[in-house]
Amino acid sequence: MQEVDTENDAADPQYTKVFKVADTASVANDTVTFADAVNAINQDTSGNYLIELADNITLPDTHFVIKANTTILGENHTIHFGAESIALRGIGTVLNLGRNGYDKTLTLTGGTGECIISLWDTTPWGSKDGSYVLNLYNGVTFEDNYPSSGVILTGYDSTVNMYGNSCIKAASDITLVDGRMISSDVLNMYDTSCLDGCNISAIGYLHGTGALNMYDQSTIKNFILRKNYENRNQTWYAVRAANCTMNDNSRIENCGGGGIKIENLVRGTGTFTMNGGSITNCSDGGVLLRNGSSFTMNGGSITNCSARTNGGGVYADGSYGSFTMNGGSITGCSATNGGGVYMAGYQCTFTMNGGSITDCSAKNSGGGVYVSSDNSLLTCQDGAVICNNKADQSAADIYLDISVTGVTLPDAASMNRTYQDTRKKITGWYLDPADNRYTPAEDAEAVDISSPLSGKLSLVASCLSSQEPIPDVDPDISDTDDTGSAIGAGIATGVFVSGATYLIGTNIWLNAIYDFVPTNRIQLAVALWNKADCPAPVSTELYPDIDADDTDAQAAARWCVEQGLMKDYHETDKDGNEEVTFKPYRYMFRPQAIKAWYDLEALQREQQ
Predict the structure, then answer these.
(1) Are strands 457-462 and 57-58 parallel, antiparallel or unpaired?
(2) Distance separating alpha carbons of residues 579 and 431, to the nearest angstrom
(3) Are the C-beta atoms of residues 15 and 40 closer than 8 Å to each other?
(4) Residues 581/573, Cβ–Cβ less than 8 Å
(5) What distance in Å separates the CA atoms of residue 528 and residue 558, rounded to the nearest whole number?
(6) Cα atoms in the Cβ-side hemisphere of radius 13 Å centred on 207
(7) How far apart are CA 350 and CA 286, in angstroms?
(8) What backbone phi and psi angles, to 5 degrees, belong to 378?
(9) Does pLDDT of 422 surpass 90?
(10) 462-483: per-residue pLDDT in tens?
(11) Sign of dihedral through CA atoms 514, 517, 520, 523?
(12) What is the crossing angle of helices 483-493 and 590-607, to 10°?
């Protein structure tokens, strides 16, 4: 049975003892020093303790070790660090900064030691406690920290969770989690938590299984190197990890370097899964894959990222790396070669089942995609979109080096896009070499994609000059009460404008009704289902291509099909067996998403 500290007014029986802490101990004020509190906590490591700040405190230059589960509440005060850190010891020790539902702030400043919070004990080859947990809750902020090794948090085999609006702000050239280059640390970011100006270094980099997982509207932003690294000819990244996932509306943005570098010294074990979110405005590439790492993009966007050399959006460098794009978009990225995607490693594979690569550019070749290395493979399914990219020398959309074989491209018409500002539908693939740049002329040399392509090819997806343009009519939804019908008619007759006007207009429209731009079928289904207040579908049958444990996605997809807002797919194999699938990560065209919204509004009016 836990003891309730009546002497220090412990109102919550979950705590063994509560300490009110100030710089100076006072019997009259019922306060003790931080050192006294830590010493008392370590006398009984089976307890669960609470430290409440009675005032701002400055820690002495003492290495504080906490060996029992402890919560520190700031009460709107500040802890100022000196030359030493706070370290956790013991198996699975938990340190909570703040508390769920607690509405006061805690600020952690200063610190000139090796780090601010240490979750590390000896080395991974020797004995260690480990498995520590650090929870940062709403109102917790690290700021103006100057650790000597450039590390705010360091650890091994531990977990850091960031909740609410907790934030770590950089004051100098620092990293967030260093992990001593060998790590199985996990950093989970939830809600609106953020890293502002600092980066993540080496999570799980060497023989590790660590990971960064971003959820909700968590953000990593404004990473800028503050020391002079220009002469090192290196790219520094906001995130360097063995494993990473991005979900929901999480963001990595405005980085004065690269966005994410996925690398593990154990070949083929690095992974990055992007289910949603965005990587935006990174000045030296969006995503770098090293040493056989894999990247699966199911949704989200990589936008306006540039690279000093190759691969503005995604760069696969190293043997046997893989990039699978099921949904999402790569837009407005730029590089010397491969403005959108650059595949450089031996036997790298790029499989594009859906999604889009548009409006990217290259100073040399491959505005959209550049495939350069021996035995690298590009495989695209119909409906995948690679178009309206630009290259100064050759291959506006796709460049294939001489050693590349077995390339399959999507049927150009299946992209359902128009070419640049011509308002003419893209209908074919054409050669676009440096000595004879493509123009939409009748004698343009078309490329037969009915069988796999091989050899050195410069390609563009385009139209012919004889094609009639789609009428340039801007649908006015304000003149009718039956908005859904108006949108449907507009889509059916192809009246949506093209090029930049199309992208800007539909972006504004979709953000106005959905608060985001749905890029695949499951994102749209969940958005429609949420608008309808999450009704239960009639059928409880599960779609086999949606995670059975994702009950919301299953319910949303089934309900949208039952209401006629979306369709599912009935396919029969050679034995006559029918399978019904939803194809959740298939690309969702913007006009279809707009129409579905207004169809739902019409349905809701009918049901009133």
Answers:
(1) unpaired
(2) 39
(3) no
(4) no
(5) 12
(6) 5
(7) 16
(8) -120, 120
(9) no
(10) 998 888 876 543 333 333 333 3
(11) negative
(12) 150
Residue 528: burial class (beta carbons within 10 Å; 0-12, 13-18, 19+): buried
Top pLDDT among 158 and 286 is at 286
Report the b/e string of 169-180 with b at 16+ CB within 10 A. Answer: bbbebbbbbbbb
Q: Which of 254-258, 495-499, 587-591 has the lowest mean pLDDT?
A: 495-499
What is the DSSP code (8-state) at residue 479?
G
Tokens of 576: 């006559």
Nearest of 372, 405, 412, 406 to residue 388 by alpha carbon: 412
**Range among 61-75, 178-192, 230-244 with highest mean pLDDT value:** 61-75
CB 416 within 8 A of CB 589: yes
Distance of CA 400 to CAs 226, 236, 324, 362, 366, Å?
39, 29, 18, 14, 8
Please tell me whether the overall predicted TM-score, pTM, comes out greater than 0.70 for this model: yes
- Phi and psi at residue 562, in whole multiples of 5°? -60, -30
Radius of gyration of the chain (CA): 28
**Are 566 and 524 spatial neighbours (Cβ–Cβ below 8 Å)?**
yes
In this structure, what token pair is assigned to residue 167? Answer: 């934030």
Structure tokens at 349: 């594979």
E strand or H helix that includes residue 602: helix 590-607
Place of tokens 């000196």: 82
Query: Cβ(556)–Cβ(526) under 8 Å?
Result: yes
Give the DSSP H or E segment for 87.
strand 86-88
Q: Using an 8 Å Cβ cutoff, are 134 and 103 in contact?
A: no
Q: Which residues pair with 462 in a beta bridge?
A: 428
**Beta-bridge mates of residue 323:** 295, 350
Q: Which residues pair with 243 in a beta bridge?
A: 271
Residue that is written with structure tokens 């063995």 in the block: 242
Half-sphere exposure for 508 (CA within 13 Å, toward CB):
5
